[in-house]
Amino acid sequence: MKYTALLTAFIATTSLAFGNQVSEDQQQFVKKYENQKSIIAPENALINTEAEPELTEGFVNIYNGKNLDGWTPRGGNCTFEATPEAIIGTCVKGSPSTYLSTNKEDYGDFIFTVEMKWAVDGNSGVIFRGKRKPGKNEFEHIYGPQAEMEGFKGHNGQRGWSGGIYGQGYMAWIYPLWLDAHKEARSALKKNEWNRITIKAVGKDVKTWVNGVPAAHYVENGEFLKGHFSLQIHAGAKGEVHFRSIKVKELSKAPH
Q: Are 73 and 80 in contact, with CB atoms under 8 Å apart?
């Protein structure tokens, strides 16, 4: 009993030291999401303390600035337009969430980065190592882990979970940014400016950064070790998101 008590105290102290407490202004979401069994318990959450990777050497631009060659819209009929500066994704009312997906579907280990700007606020994000299958309607079902980029609805004192991990199309929230350790990440998004999301995946280990600020760190269960990238325009009444500087650096290949 004495050993157990000491171990419990040690774990609690360690959790506090690494910021594994749910922040006071995030407590409202504990109750809201208590039935989402996919969420990693606060005391078990790994904390990303790594500096954002260097983002120039060895990277390949996967948007050519001319057209959408190499990409296919899937999952809905929200629109994507190619312009010299950026891809413009626009919500179409009544459409399911739509994903501009890379035709290359075997990205394994990588560092991926993209800059995003909201012209009209709306939920978005980047699916990585994504998969697809026939849907229940005329659209394909797109699913996989997603680096959330939720825009500014409820930001600053509400959620602020951009950079968190959501199990898009197959689960729910996996890694929310509600801990004390995530305080800086929750305020990293900048309204009316370009915002950078960076994702690093090596084997099962995944980390994210928002504008250079460490955000999520989680370990994949092994289902999603290779796949496509998808830029999301979420279902809704409105939303317009611009995507530019879409680059990837492939690392060693993930196991099959």
A: yes
